[in-house]
Amino acid sequence: MRKSVFFILMLLLSLGSCDNEAKFVVKGEIKDAKDQILYLEKSSIEGVVLLDSMKMKGSGVFEFTQKRPEAPEFYRLRLKNDVINFAVDSIETVFVKADAKDFSTNYIVEGSENNLKIKELVLLQADLQKEVNRLGRSNLPPGIVQDSLTAMVQRYKDQVKRNYIFAEPNKAYAYFALFQTLNGYMIYNPLSNKEDIKCFAAVATSMNNAYPHSDRSKNLYNTVIKGMKNTRTPKMDTLNLPVDKIKESGVIEIALKNIDDKVCRLTDLKGKVVLLDFTVYNHAMSSSRNLALRELYNKLFSKGLEIYQISLDTDEHFWKTQADKLPWVCVRDPNGIYSEYVNVYGITNLPTIFLINRSNELLKRYDTNTGMASLEKDVEAIL
Q1: Is 309 part of a structural domain of the chain?
Q2: pLDDT by residue (tens digit) across 229-246?
Q3: N or C: less crowded end of the chain, CB within 10 Å?
Q4: Domain that residue 134 falls in
Q5: Would you give the DSSP letter of residue 272?
Q6: What is the pLDDT of residues 8-55, one digit of tens each?
Q7: Residue 134: partners with Cβ closer than 8 Å, 6 or more residues away
Q8: What whole-number distance in Å separates Cα of residue 154 and Cα of residue 98?
Q9: What's this model's pTM, rounded to 2 decimal places?
Q10: Cα–Cα distances in Å, from 370 out to 33, 86, 119, 280?
Q11: Which of 77, 109, 141 is at the close of a domain?
Q12: Across-strand partners of 62?
């Protein structure tokens, strides 16, 4: 009998401790959403995780309760394919009011400054996407489209890093800003762009100081370390190719396989003007950039221009699908950003182009900010 009473007491204490567990509540009202399913999801590092759902009633009132995270975490409300992003840190209640017809853009969120800023970022990104789509539908030449797109994205990045990332890197919205996307690809590149790595480093330092044991802090820190390693200026003693071979050919030889598994050598193109292009296809601006290169290629191929394009994509199938549509030499280094050629050619940002004359001599290097008009002018000058 005593054992039974003791067991019941322990069970009650256990249930009481669960009730005292720190929780957060997200609640509010969604207009014109009757009979639709509203989902609460967690945007974890591994991916989106479904936490709860409910069928909306005519009143539009909803409420979800979940365990409060120990470090800032990101969640979203989803109605069909539209989402509202929000963060939870020390707050206990997030209030959301929205309309089903423009759920993801025209909503009110209350509860913290972080979520107000996240909404601002979402709207800024939506405006950027509209501008990019409008530019893509224009009848402008591909080269001008690419230059305009590059400038447009750079202005966006400068605005966001100034007003949201560097302004308060210790805030959850600064972290959110790092992972915004355009056309499904990350706007900030933490693995091969030095300026973007600085943004990640600022937030990583703040998060590591405040939440050293959180998974997001550790993941961000590791990303920064990897990016710094990738963009470190290579030392001359890392070259594994004979000096006499470099002098003889005028360029450092590259031998990689194309989509048909055939080895293509850079020096086999001697006698042509060559654009040696280090790139990744899995990038927000890759399609428009290749479209601009195609315009240049179609215009000058008959005069002796060739493109030797090296993909550093990790996804071989995706690369083959994209490369199959292109008329120039497309090869891939399976080592990706750890490629020996990235090292020996001193690549610190992608994409990077080298202009090579008919004698296999490197003449000029172009980074991500170089306009297609400038590139075309230089190519025509030596054809």
Answers
A1: yes
A2: 777 754 433 334 444 444
A3: N
A4: 124-231
A5: S
A6: 555 555 544 445 678 999 999 999 999 999 999 999 998 999 999 999
A7: none
A8: 32
A9: 0.71
A10: 48, 37, 33, 17
A11: 109
A12: 28
